[in-house]
Design goal:
Blueprint lengths: L4 H16 L20 H15 L5 H4 L2 H4 L5 E2 L2 E2 L1 H10 L6 H5 L12 H12 L3
Antiparallel strand pairs: 1-2
Helix pairs in contact: 1-2, 1-7
């Protein structure tokens, strides 16, 4: 039976608390993984591992972090993601709210984009959350 959205949030929250050593109350739906919770690139490996184990799913790195878009001269010009690049990110990351990023599509800002809610939506789509 598919988990509820609340159950998905609870498991994602537990994974983030364990992986990042943050307090329960810091993990809110709106919190950004990097900016608010202090996740670093090495932490994402741990987070992905914990989510895969908790939900019995496989998370291909390119689905959650489409770095090839951010390093492609086809999609990035002068340090900013082009409208075509934004389109590609939206296609690959339908779970993420890219509206703030569209206002300032600087590549270095991308890591501040992903929120706990985005992560829950992604996992929810993988497990058919209700």
């Amino acid at each position: 039976m598919a988990p509820t959205k609340d159950e998905v949030f609870a498991k994602v929250k537990e994974a983030l608390v364990d992986a990042l050593g943050v307090d329960d109350d810091e993990v809110t739906a709106e919190a950004t993984l990097v900016g608010d919770l202090g996740a670093e690139s090495i932490d994402f490996l741990d987070i992905v591992f914990r989510l895969e184990k908790a939900f019995e799913i496989e998370i291909p790195r390119s689905e959650l972090f489409p770095e090839d878009v951010l390093t492609s001269s086809e999609y990035v010009q002068e340090g900013k993601v082009t409208p075509e690049g934004i389109g590609e990110l939206k296609k690959r990351m339908p779970f993420a709210d890219l509206s703030k990023f569209e206002d300032n599509p600087a590549v270095q800002e991308f890591s501040n984009l992903l929120t706990v809610q985005d992560l829950c939506r992604y996992v929810g789509s993988k497990v058919g959350a209700q």
